[in-house]
Each structure stands twice: as structure tokens, then as C-alpha cells.
Design goal:
Layout lengths: L18 H14 L15 H23 L1 H5 L8 H28 L4 H13 L1 H20 L4 H27 L8 H6 L1
Helix pairs in contact: 2-4, 2-5, 2-7, 4-7, 6-7
Keywords: Membrane, Transmembrane, Transmembrane helix
Pfam families: DUF1757
Length: 196
């Protein structure tokens, strides 16, 4: 298969996998579907609206946390902060998670408005078929929970900020583990790399 292309083996397709490929795909799907069902074919993907919407909102949550956490630093150049810097960063990140989630919710609505259900299924299928994306979600999910626990007692903005910053720490840990320790390689066979 040509490198750099993505294949979704669909029913009645000329690219129907062989028995060996089908076995590899079943193993691959088992690993990808730790928490969500990942169908063999994109048109059979279950919960496409929930999967895609959750993914987009979660990315907005993390992006908002990053932007919010950076916001107090330029403000410091013009006036004193109302809170000590660590708490100001935490609260600002918390507000950023709300704004980022809302902005990407609107962006998703605009992007997918009027789209057919198969397009939702295809996009959600691709997300679950992407091993790197699933690993990022796993690491960031753990970081989100840990961050929220660490920031308990800081109010709702502080708790959301802790969750958002924990998300970013999880992503950073994943990048160091996958790309620093393993050089970005998944130790997969050529067929699996092309199929994902």
C-alpha cells in the first residue's frame, strides 16, 4: 500500500483485507477500543456523534487551559495581579477551559451542520483507529483527573484550571514517553501502519 495514505476497509470494497490482515485488524481494534467500541468498518461505527463531539470539546478544554494559563503573564506587565501568580494562572486556566470548550462547540456545529451521518461515523472511526490519538487521550485523561484532585479546594475555576493544566501535563508526559523514549515508533507491521 502507498505510504502516507489512510485506508478504511469497507464492505464490498476492492480493498477487503485478507484473513491475515483481518486478524491483525481485529487485534488492533481490540487495543483501540479500551473504552469505546471501534467497528471494523467506518459505516458501522457506533456512537459517532458522542465520540466526535466529545473529542472536539475535550480539545477545546485543553486549548483553552493553555491560553488561559499564559494570560496572566502579559497582564503582569501593565498592572499587579489580583491573586498570587500560581493561583492567578490556575484560575485563568479554569476560565480558559470554559471559553475554549464553548468556542470549539460552536466551531463543531458550524463545521458539521448538515453533514450526513456517515461523515460523523467516518471521522469518529478515524479517531479510534489512530493509535497515537488514543494514547494522547489516555495520558491526558489521567492528567485531567489528577489535576482536578490536586486543585481541590480552589473553587470551581481553580478545579477546572487544575484539570486543564493536568491535561497538558499528561500530553507532555505522553510526548516525552512516546517520542523521547520510543522515537515515535509503535513497533507495528507495515500493513497496520498503513491501515491506521
Amino acid at each position: 500500500m502507498p505510504r502516507g495514505r489512510r485506508f478504511r476497509f469497507r464492505k464490498h470494497s476492492a480493498h477487503t483485507p485478507s484473513k491475515h490482515q483481518d486478524y491483525l485488524l481485529s487485534l488492533h481494534n481490540t487495543r483501540m477500543s479500551q473504552f469505546l467500541p471501534h467497528a471494523t468498518y467506518a459505516e458501522d461505527q457506533r456512537y459517532p456523534y458522542a465520540i466526535l463531539t466529545g473529542h472536539v470539546l475535550y480539545r477545546g478544554f485543553a486549548t483553552g487551559a493553555l491560553v488561559g494559563a499564559l494570560a496572566p503573564f502579559p497582564i503582569m506587565l501593565f498592572r499587579p495581579l489580583k491573586y498570587p501568580l500560581p493561583l492567578a494562572v490556575l484560575r485563568s486556566a479554569g476560565m480558559g477551559t470554559v471559553v475554549g470548550t464553548g468556542v470549539l462547540a460552536l466551531a463543531l456545529a458550524g463545521r458539521m451542520y448538515g453533514r450526513e451521518e456517515i461523515e460523523w461515523r467516518d471521522r469518529s472511526w478515524r479517531l479510534l483507529a489512530n493509535k497515537g490519538q488514543v494514547e494522547v487521550d489516555t495520558w491526558s485523561g489521567v492528567g485531567t483527573v489528577m489535576g482536578a484532585l490536586v486543585a481541590r479546594g480552589k473553587g470551581w475555576r481553580g478545579r477546572l484550571g487544575g484539570a486543564g493544566l493536568g491535561n497538558l501535563v499528561g500530553v507532555g508526559g505522553y510526548l516525552g514517553w512516546r517520542y523521547g523514549l520510543y522515537g515515535g515508533k509503535f513497533n507495528k507491521g507495515k500493513w497496520e501502519e498503513d491501515a491506521v
